[in-house]
Amino acid sequence: MPLLEKRDEGAAVIEDRFARIEDDGDLPGDGNLLVSLERFLSDKDALLARAGDLGVWLRSEQTPQELVGDLERIALVALDFPIFSDGRSYSSARLLRERHGYAGELRAIGDVLCEQLGFMLRSGFDTFQMASPNALEEFAAIAREVQIVYQPTGDGQATATDLRIGS
Amino acid sequence: MYHYDEYDHALVKDRVAQFRRQVDRRISGELTEEQFRPLRLMNGLYLQLHAYMLRVAIPYGTLDSRQLRKLAYIGRRYDKGYGHFTTRQNLQYNWPKLEETPDILSELAEVEMHAIQTSGNCIRNTTSDQYAGAAADEIEDPRIWCEIVRQWSTLHPEFSFLPRKFKIAITGCEDDRAAVRVHDIGLIMKRGEGGEVGFEVIVGGGLGRTPFLGKHIRSWLPKEDLLSYLEAILRTYNMLGRRDNKYKARIKVTVHETGAEEFTRLVEEEWNEIKDSALKLPKEEMDRIAAHFKAPSFRVLDAESAEQEERAARDPAFASWIRHNTVAHKAPGYAIANISLKPVGLPPGDATSDQMDLIADLAEEFSFDDVRVTHGQNLVLPHVERSRLPELYDRLATAGLSTANVGLLSDIICCPGLDYCALANARSIPIATQLSERFADQGRLSLIGEMQIKISGCINACGHHHVGHIGILGVDRKGEEHYQIQLGGSAAEDASLGKILGRGFSADQVVDVVDQLVDVYLELREDDERFIDTFRRVGQGPFKERVYATA
């Protein structure tokens, strides 16, 4: 499964530097870990005290609310799309970026299809775990194929209104 | 009306190119039907019983002649010479070929139209009052706000994968012709305590399997806060709405299960976080869009027209048309003219390409190049000089467009039913056409007066049967088409949901049953009482008694 990171133009395939640990798995002494929200909440002190970077993944029905106080110490939040049509993680992404000021890596995982990439970029995602073997080509062709946007989001892109009034 | 600027044009053009690539990938076999399905459904392309169906958005039901001629042309060139106007003020083509749909969208883009978000679990075409800008009691033209919502909702990154489809309606009048109480969000323009114009906000109405009237969640909202408030409602719904069962996924169920009070609290809490964000509408942008909806330069005329009165005095058919199809206009000497798409014996809401071309000509000649689509599946010329109504009537009559039945029994709302739709249990169109034949007599129609019959071919309620004065629901009973009757619904400012009368009827009984219901009403009505008023006064009893005594 390629992991893509957005670039100014297109994207690049990157190495996943996080190891996913199951809820009942032992904590290794070092290395970067990705854990569930449940694991994070139950083992928070130990996880935050470790040497490596910490990532937390949220299922689509979980909101980022419980991460709010610790976001500065979290390097990755992975938001799940159990099926492409479940759009809850778009809201979670915007809340993390725009309300809670989260500046770390925001990763889309699960059923991530190329047609969703444009929406995901605008919602604040910057990495994408995609099943398609052609993900990189698809990203280049599709992610920004509609260039004008109407909605202000936290991605800073000028909206049609901004362009009209020249701000 | 609104005209695209370079940014609106660029977006639609990009979207057409995107869809063309998707169709190419489907035709080449790179995408399976299963993979293609969600993509085509983001662009109004359905696979029906016999063919693809393409639903074209008509934003808030407003067209100019150029656009209507294009719809006529597409009907002729790519379909079977007609189109079907829907209850959401859109137009459907029932027979397009898959490989030609990108060309159709290119043609539409030339006249500032598209099919974006006419399907899928996203924010659909925002609908409005068909008399916007012409109605006498209007506070402000609601289409300004419909256009603002259109832009904000188009390809919204956060709200393109909602739990279920989402429909917004806006009206600028107390008289509700936009059915705002049965929409996911209904907005009514209102004056606040200081006299400034804003919105009353209603959430969680809807029809379908479990009909609900919307709940008032805010009595007044300042205009510049409209988008932040909508975003707060949509975000609350996106995160809270059920995704385990598509029949419980609409916001009406979310509001019902959460409780209106708690839902309101959540929305207000969210809104407090975002109301001072970039969503606050700049005055320049509100003014820019409002300028597109400036009233046309009406001539200074006498309120009455001798030409209209002289013709009406000697021509009863014209007099009936004036009485039923025209409505008072805000400017003296003008009328709003409805064009019925409910002729005797033909499917409700269909218009041929030739009829569309004629109506486009008439819009240019008689109505400041302005045509409206109604949620009742008729068309409207909103600004016609009264003195020219006789000429307009004669021109409409040449094309079978002068049926004088708007608001009357044969002005039926009807879904496509089993003739087209893969979901339907029963046919709807034949019931509608048979009713129009039974009640073809103009004298009897006029005598019965205002009456709304609404027919759905299955419980998804696309024909709005819950809010018909008489609602007819097609069901499947052991493989046979069967029809339940409900009475007492309304989608207007006095909104209510109908109640089932009793056991259903076979297809060949339905028309007789409606006839009996009408007889009971005519016997019991007092003064000018409408059917719905008589029903509300006397209840189901007398109707039930008559229908089941003889059936």
Describe the structure.
The complex is a heterodimer of chains A (about 170) and B (about 550). Chain A is α/β, with parallel strands linked by helices. Chain A has one domain (about 5-165): Aldolase class I (TIM Barrel), CATH 3.20.20.70. Chain A has helices at about 35-40, 45-50, 90-100, 115-125, 135-140, 160-165; strands at about 5, 10-15, 20, 35, 55-60, 75-80, 105-110, 125-130. Chain A is globular. The mean pLDDT of chain A is about 95. Chain B is α+β, with helices and mostly antiparallel strands and about 550 residues long. Chain B has helices at about 5-25, 35-40, 65-80, 100-110, 145-155, 225-240, 250-260, 260-275, 285-290, 305-315, 315-325, 355-365, 390-395, 430-440, 440-450, 510-525, 530-540, 540-550; strands spanning about 45, 50-55, 60-65, 80-85, 90-95, 125-130, 170, 185-190, 195-205, 215-220, 325-330, 335-340, 350, 370-375, 380-385, 415, 455, 470-475, 480-485, 500, 505. The N and C termini of chain B lie far apart (about 50 Å). The model of chain B has no long low-confidence stretch (mean pLDDT about 95). The interface of A and B includes residues 91, 122 and 147 of A.
Descriptive labels:
heterodimer, A: 167 residues, alpha/beta, TIM Barrel, globular, B: 551 residues, alpha+beta, Sulfite Reductase Hemoprotein, domain 2, Sulfite Reductase Hemoprotein, domain 1, 6-stranded mixed β-sheet, 5-stranded antiparallel β-sheet, 18 helices, 21 strands, 17% strand
Q: State which percent range the strand residues of chain B make up.
A: 15-25%
Instruction: Give the structural class of chain B.
Output: alpha+beta
User: How far is it from the N-terminal to the C-terminal residue of chain A, by CA?
Assistant: 41 Å
Radius of gyration of chain A: 16 Å
Q: Give the SSE order of chain A as H and E letters.
A: EEEEHHEEHEHEHH
How are the SSEs placed, and which strands pair?
The complex is a heterodimer of chains A (167) and B (551).
Chain A: E1 3-6, E2 11-14, E3 19-20, E4 33-36, H1 37-42, H2 44-49, E5 54-58, E6 76-81, H3 88-99, E7 105-110, H4 117-123, E8 127-129, H5 135-142, H6 160-165
Parallel strand pairs in A: 3-4, 4-5, 5-6, 6-7, 7-8
Antiparallel strand pairs in A: 1-2, 1-8
Chain B: H1 6-27, H2 33-40, E1 45-47, E2 52-56, E3 62-63, H3 65-78, E4 82-85, E5 91-93, H4 101-110, E6 127-128, H5 143-153, E7 168-171, E8 185-191, E9 197-203, E10 215-222, H6 226-240, H7 251-258, H8 260-274, H9 283-291, H10 306-314, H11 316-325, E11 326-328, E12 334-339, E13 350-352, H12 353-366, E14 371-373, E15 379-385, H13 389-397, E16 413-414, H14 429-438, H15 442-448, E17 453-456, E18 470-477, E19 480-487, E20 499-500, E21 505-506, H16 510-524, H17 531-538, H18 541-550
Parallel strand pairs in B: 6-7, 7-8, 16-17, 17-18
Antiparallel strand pairs in B: 1-2, 2-5, 3-14, 4-5, 4-13, 8-9, 9-10, 11-12, 12-15, 14-15, 18-19, 19-20, 19-21
Helix pairs in contact in B: 1-2, 1-4, 3-12, 6-8, 7-8, 10-11, 14-16, 16-17, 16-18
